[in-house]
Design brief:
The chain is mostly helical and about 325 residues long. About 80% of the residues lie in helices and about 0% in strands. It is globular. The relative contact order is 0.07.
């Protein structure tokens, strides 16, 4: 239907916004990104531009390009500061970058304006889960699904929460339900691969990653996940190969640079590892996951003074992170 509208009215910005949203639901993030960009090229008025920027920012975040994501989301919030949906997108971005406390503050601001919004509540569930408050997250998401059993975002976030608690079978049920209605949902496939990893069903995890690569060939995420999986299995050369394939998809994919740094560190190629982490940090300096990777490098290189500073920075950015206690204990061991 949207293609038919485009044929008669190709200058309508809202058309590309709606088509991009459909592409996102289908899991084709690259196609969604192109549609949102085409909508912005139509130079819509401020409110419509804010909506398109927020949508494109979310797409960039999913494609592991955080600098572009943050630029779009902050501009969207500047153009429409009271729009709850945009605050929700910004909160989700902070959450995926490891800044959970900032994310929770932002999503609560959005919920003050729209307390019953199902999407905002689903995002809050995701953030609570990442803060280690899994029981709160599970209760919130189950309550949301009672009234909206077909809410894909809530079901997907519930699966991630169950995964964080080690409830792999329950998480697998939720993701299977999502994929029954949306078989090409690449985010659900990625999360199911994580569940299979937890169940040590590695063949099935790799199969889901292969499906994502077939659906969206330019998506760096499955390669990043594969690199992580290979690292966990001690396959360091294959991990490096996967990270490099991810960077072919998107040279600015910070998570791929991070995985590359970790793989090179395990291969005792420290100078190349240092360069990979430094590049990742230059692209996304406040990403907690990248800072944790850099911390691994500093510890391996016995640079304890810098490691103490890195831990302090991580705890400042994510004081409520699930690994905060371990980091504080490590800081004491280093004399901090």
């Amino acid at each position: 239907i949207l293609d038919a509208v485009e044929a008669t009215n190709p200058g309508l910005a809202q058309l590309y916004q709606q088509r991009g949203e459909v592409q996102s639901l289908r899991g084709d993030i690259q196609a969604a990104l192109k549609d949102f960009t085409r909508g912005l090229e139509r130079k819509p008025e401020a409110f419509a531009r804010a909506v398109l920027l927020a949508a494109r920012g979310q797409a960039y975040a999913k494609l592991l390009t955080p600098d572009r994501a943050l630029a779009d989301l902050e501009e969207a919030a500047r153009l429409a500061p009271d729009m709850p949906e945009i605050l929700g997108s910004l909160a989700q971005f902070h959450a995926t970058s490891g800044r959970q406390e900032v994310a929770l503050h932002t999503i609560n601001r959005a919920l003050v304006r729209s307390p019953k919004d199902a999407n905002l509540r689903a995002i809050k569930g995701q953030i609570l889960s990442r803060l280690g408050r899994a029981e709160e997250a599970e209760a919130l998401l189950l309550d949301l699904l009672k009234s909206q059993p077909q809410n894909v975002a809530a079901r997907g976030n519930l699966a991630v929460t169950l995964l964080s608690q080690g409830k792999f079978s329950a998480a697998l049920r939720e993701l299977t339900a999502v994929l029954e209605t949306s078989p090409n949902n690449t985010t659900a496939l990625l999360n199911r691969a994580a569940v299979y990893q937890g169940l040590k069903r590695f063949k099935e995890a790799y199969a889901d990653l292969a499906r994502i690569k077939a659906i969206t060939p330019d998506d760096a995420r499955p390669y990043v996940f594969e690199a992580d999986l290979r690292l966990a299995q001690g396959e360091f050369k294959k991990a490096l190969q996967a990270a490099d394939e991810g960077l072919k998809c998107d040279p600015r994919a910070t998570a791929a640079h991070n995985m590359r740094g970790l793989a090179l560190l395990q291969l005792d190629r420290k100078e190349e590892s240092r360069a990979a982490f430094q590049l990742a940090l230059s692209l996304d300096p406040n990403n907690v996951r990248i800072k944790l990777g850099w911390l691994n490098f500093l510890l391996a290189d016995r640079r304890h003074a810098e490691a103490k500073t890195a831990i302090q920075e991580i705890l400042k950015l994510a004081p409520g992170a699930p690994n905060a206690k371990q980091l504080k204990d490590l800081l004491k061991q280093l004399g901090g």
